[in-house]
Amino acid sequence: MAKKRPQPARGIKPQAQVAGGEVPVVGAREPCPCGSGRRYKACHGRAAAHAVTELVQRPFEGLAGEGDWVALRELVPAATATLTLKDGLPEGVPSVTLATVLPMAWPALRRDDGSVLLGLQNDTPSGDLSRDLADTLLRALTAKPGTPVAAERAPADGPRLQDLLDADAPFEPEVHTGFEFWVPDAENATPEVSASLERANAAAIPTVRLTGVDAAYWCETPDKNHLRWVMPYAEDQLLDALARLHAAGTSSLGEGTRLVGSFRAHGLMVPVWDLPSETKAQDIEKPAAELAERLTAALASDAPLSPEERRARGGLTNRQVTLS
User: Fold this and answer.
1) Which tens digit of pLDDT belongs to each residue from 94-103?
2) Considering the entire predicted model, what is its pTM?
3) Using the 8-state DSSP alphabet, how is residue 20 labeled?
4) Is the CB of residue 111 less than 8 Å from the CB of residue 184?
């Protein structure tokens, strides 16, 4: 038989064992500090657990360069970006840099000189990627120089990146051909580090960020090249606009290119174009800018979709893949 839950004496209300209205976190099976007589997980722990696991669909919303945050999280192998804190850099921390990935998949690293590297492409324990990254960043700022920062569960009411970063500061990713940014002096790295860099570099897909439009990344694969473009529009609105262009035969980036589908990632859509293998990043700068103008006009239309446009929309919807 299940054990009976202890009940307070009849006619006597449980007395709270905390002051100030805040209930501290205790073990899931321990009595809740509020004095209810129930276990923490069945009382105040229930709301805390829900807050931790509830998925935040757009974790980077409100940050400068939201599309680039999504791209660096899901699409770009090797890139960095300088982060600007609202309250400035703490003493002894010369810089804070976001990195797509760090050695040994560390969540963050405090270098010997005190600078901080924050890894973006890591598994996180809760449903709010922004809160998890903010917690890691705060711990990295106070870590001992020369040490990595381990993964930990962030407090359910802890700050998010939006609370820590300056929303007015530019977010300008720098895409790298390899992971030499891991170490200050890659040429004089130890044999072990050099071997690790060589393996990581061999697996990285060549990627270039376009300069004429926002959050668009050319990448090279063995069979064909691609353009992956993170767009900041509502999904239904963007699908309608792309369908209008597709039905009109104006959704491509030039001869031999075609819009093949899209990803969903962190609340945004990422349309993908196939490109001929000989097409390089600089070759599609102008076509991408021209397509952006056509897309802006299509987004502004509120006319009902024609039968051809509805068919095009259905085809695009069927070729969506959710990354996160």
Assistant:
1) 999 999 999 8
2) 0.83
3) T
4) yes
